[in-house]
Input
Amino acid sequence: MYDDYQSSSSDMGLSDGYNYDVLAQPISGESYSFVTFGPDRLNEEGMIALKSLRTSLLYRLIIRKRFIDEGLRWASLWPHPNIVRVYDVTTMGDAEMAQHPFIALEYAERGSLRDWLDRGPLTRKKALAWAQCIAAGLAYLHEPDPSHLRKAAMAHGNLKPENVLIRTDRVAVLTDFGLARAVAASAREEDLQPFMYVKAPTETQALHIRGEVTLGAPAYMAPEQWIDGASAGPAGDIYALGVMLYELFTGQRPLVDLELPQSPQEWWQAQVTHEPPRLRAIDPSLPEALETLALECLARDPHSRPSARAVWERLQGIALALGAPVWEAPEIIPHTTHNELVFWSNWSNLCADFERWDEALERNGRALAIDPRAVTTLCNRGDILVGLRRYDEAKEVYQAALQYASTDEERGMVWGHLGTMHNEAGHDALANEDYHATAVQCKQADIAYARQIELAPHDPDALLNRAVNQHLLEIAEAQ
Output
């Protein structure tokens, strides 16, 4: 839990979100988004953080879609020790009302880097450790990973201490990348009007830039972002990291004192025209290599800034020279055959949850290429084909899964999927007023559900699904 958090709001109840059935308490929020936390139903001792946008923004379908896009893109990353893990992208709310999308995240108990900076100066050891973590996380985002379908660099786009969280093991992790950019790219000016009156320069806010409105935190925006709000690329992240190096090692900001009231125009003038002071003018005991690196990160020309990997390697060299711990970003999930299979299967299921069938099929195919006899993965493929109304193909896949199933529990699961397939086909026939075909499909579904109950009698969904199917059969027979 955040050490110094004091909630000024009442707890907010959220209904069942598949794996997350929580009484969530608000812990933080931007003008355009919010985070809550609560217990993870699948892990009795664990906590989960839930990220979403303000309801006023989600009314716009394009913003809702972009938010889900970014959530799925975030979830597609192979787990990295300096990136907050996404466990799920899901929806919550009354089924009869618009579902509210959430990103289910790793919960970082030690608060944000801003919380730590506000408490007073950091030790040099801690500042150096967290600077390496931030650079390592950016290096992972900024470098393509074609083997996992990430063909281009990912930019954070809104890097600042509020978006760096500290885990229980005191490792710094990046969060919230891409979300501000997704909202800004799809929102109309009137959507962002409520966020134009935010005063804190570290908070993401709506800014007028060359006749357009975009989202950004003035204290960390690179000069090019003030000219073109959409240009929040990797080099912009490096600029923000340069600002944060000053805060980490000196507790001061390189251009404008955050305690002094400044308009967005004054922040723009500072970022574009002011020269940052040298780090060693603030603290002469700091190494010259760190001062040089910070100034290079703050170069006005984005092409003159070093890459994230170069920043990380140079920080490692500084740590080594000072006898401080060197952060190597150890692999937290090994790239074993099993883990790759789980990765592709989970990603496929997430795409299917949002009816992105083609993407789901491609990722499911990657999983089956690893293990063509994986029963659960075969069932998932059948489910995707059912979503595409390709019932004959789905039936073939389920039958293959039955051949490879080795336990009664697995066989019962496959029969349950077969029952659902026939039930879906029955609904389609009913919609077309083909009552005979509806009855035929429902009878096939009933046979499948009966087999499921026989093989897996403790599956709570089997009896319910059979009862729903029998009701559909009664409707068809009555017609």
Notes: The two ends are 58 Å apart (CA to CA). The mean pLDDT is 85.
